[in-house]
Specification:
Elements lengths: L2 H8 L7 E6 L6 H9 L2 E2 L2 E2 L4 E7 L2 E7 L3 H8 L1 H6 L2 E7 L2 E2 L13 H10 L4
Antiparallel strand pairs: 1-5, 1-6, 2-3, 4-5, 6-7
């Protein structure tokens, strides 16, 4: 893939969904889930709303999806996010399922995945 595709897929301004598995070890309070789903007020503005689902993929308890690069802001600034998360694994970016990659592991994209990513990035 070229730099333009990568830029369009990773820059938060293009708002591609990023889905993570989150290990909390505890059940989150409904009020904390609602706050994450509605957005949390931080010093630099409100976070983008997240979608949260319970999962049973040990050791992960929840799936959380952001449409911007909110995980870094939440992890750095939000007491809810910082308190709830002891492991985080990205499993999807836009239409691309990352599969069972281990930390630092890479895989080659199929021609179909490259076409889909180019399409998602607005580069036909």
């Amino acid at each position: 893939m070229n730099g333009e595709v990568t830029q369009r897929l990773t820059h938060p301004g293009f708002e591609h969904e990023k889905e993570y598995l989150v290990a909390t070890g505890v059940k989150l309070a409904e009020q904390d889930i609602r706050r994450l789903e509605q957005g949390i007020q931080l010093e630099d503005g409100i976070t983008c709303p997240a979608t949260i689902k319970e999962v049973n993929i040990k050791p992960f308890d929840y799936s959380i999806t952001f449409t911007k690069a909110e995980s870094a802001r939440c992890a750095a600034c939000s007491s809810i996010w910082a308190a709830m998360c002891f492991a985080l694994k990205r499993i999807r970016m836009g239409s691309l399922q990352l599969g069972q990659l281990q930390p630092g592991e890479v895989r080659e994209l199929s021609p179909g995945e490259v076409r889909q990513l180019r399409k998602s990035a607005g580069l036909h």
